[in-house]
Automatic annotation (TrEMBL):
Coiled-coil zones: none
TonB-dependent receptor plug domain ranges (all copies): 44-149
First and last residue of the signal peptide: 1-23
The organism's place on the tree of life at top rank: Bacteria
InterPro entries xrefs: Beta-barrel_TonB (IPR000531), Beta-barrel_TonB_sf (IPR036942), Plug_dom (IPR012910), Plug_dom_sf (IPR037066), TonB-dep_rcpt-like (IPR039426)
Family in the record: Belongs to the TonB-dependent receptor family.
Membrane topology of this protein: Multi-pass membrane protein
Name of the featured protein: TonB-dependent receptor
Keyword Disulfide bond: no
SUPFAM superfamilies: Porins
Organism: Azospira restricta
Localization terms from the record: Cell outer membrane
GO biological process: cobalamin transport; monoatomic ion transport
Alphabetical keyword list: Cell outer membrane, Ion transport, Membrane, Receptor, Signal, TonB box, Transmembrane, Transmembrane beta strand, Transport
Amino acid sequence: MKIDNRHALAAATLAAFSGNLMAAADAELNPIVVTATRQATRVSDLMADVTVIDREEIEQAGQTTIEQLLARQPGIQYTANGGPGTNSGIFIRGASSKQSIVLIDGQRFGSATTGEATWSRIPLSQVERIEILRGPASSLYGADAIGGVIQIFTRKGSGEPRLNASTGYGTYHTSDSSVGISGGNELVSFSLQGGYYETDGVSAIHNKKSSSFNPDRDGYRNSSFSGSLAVRPASGHEIGATVLATDGTSRYDSTPKARDFKSEQDVAAYSIYSRNKLLASWTSTVRLGRSTDDLTTRRNGVTTGEFRTVQDQLVWQNDVKLPLGTALFAAEYLKQAVSGTTNYTRDERSVRSLLAGWTAGLDNHQLQLNLRRDDNSQFGGRTTGAATYGYQFTPAWRGHLSYGTAFRAPTFNELYFPDTGFGGGNPNLKPEKAKNAEAGVTWETSGHRLSAVYFHNKVEDLINSWPPQNVNKATLKGTSLSYAGRSGPWSGGVSVDLQRTRDDDTGNRLARRAERQMFSHLSRSFGDWTLGGEWQWVGHRYDDAANRVRLGGYGLVNLFAEYRVDKDWVLFARGNNIFDKYYETVNNYGVLGANAFFGIRYAPK
């Protein structure tokens, strides 16, 4: 099928959904989000390109990984070096994995040596919801937010104390179980959750001609825990704590070959906070947190490398209601430290930041302004800003225009990794910098949301692969179209991404980015039954910067079903890649073929 035909089919699907699905519950399509402005705001009042993944969608994901779930959202693609538990990356609007920020309950998360988040260690069983902000957000969150921000919220408690549990089993000897207790009232709320996941997986290297190929299956196991506690001693005052900790082991193929090559990786994010309404118009929030990323690699039982990242973060945010709009004033301190078997010339850095923002609405006009200054102990100061204007044309139609700047700080590997014969880090690297302009229009009515966003992101001083230098420039531009709606027992949606990500000097496409992709889903409830399906199509990509190694496009079909036994018990099943399509997101690395997962969930309402 030619690409043009695929576009026509995607457009027809979009029109069909828009015309056939009518009226539904607004709360599910118009949730309150925090990430886009750092203040609680309804999606319908935002002038940003935002998606929220709620607990219902997470539960329908079955054994799907968090990376695969994210890749079904507009503007996002992913790569994985093998099956579940292996190294993976998330691209937002064509930006690399290093060019986006990951937060867990407001705390920065990831490795400061690689500059990437460890997605494979985040289990969906511990996640309440995910907020995705597409577009540069350094004026809100600082370094690395060139492509956007993904914030993960762990599970919280409300209502009468009650247990929840889930267990299931599937192909590749995959098992996934979790159990927890949560509850809350006006004075206190809490949640405690634990989980365990294990799978035999597939061989990480699929190509038999590769020097690293080993036909054994490279399995993965992960245990996890999350908890939250919030106490409200008086109206307008809350003190709380959150924690997420996981412990996982992944097996790989290696060069030279090893009988048993594995990585043991523990990650955690925890914080305490105090939110206080000091005046009727002034709310102050102080949050102190830490995230850790500990990686140990072993070959036949012998340790070959250790890498540890610790990120300490202190944030004081003030939200002030003004006669017109709401102001934001905040100060942040971030300290990043690395250690292990690699001797870095410098092993820590600190960032001190001040930021201010203002959002306001007047009649049909909306405005958001943000300004931030980051002073980094390694390379000095950077100032970023953003301005967005929105206009409500009718009760259903609104549009926005925005312009923003962003930057990415070099990683410790890029700056200080020792020379092992192939070149070392470059301490003279400058931060990458970006300038983004975008325009969007949204149609929203009861139970339906249709949007179109065009973006143009110019990135300069790009750091090439190795040895690192600021030599590249790139242009990331494209259009995202998306629709989501509910009508009685029906629920569905479709998104289409058309993007062009090019190296300005060579004209080559950036590695592992498809220029076209589409995802659609449709489900229907029949009394106690819910049945649904998904179709994901991703165009071809190139595995290398020179565009010599082509990765073919692929289409995946997934099916899922739920049966509510009674008000508390649900049986569920999911089939991913049901037509057993073979594809690669990274050259030579294997992926799961057709797979199924069946389980039971106890979740009192």
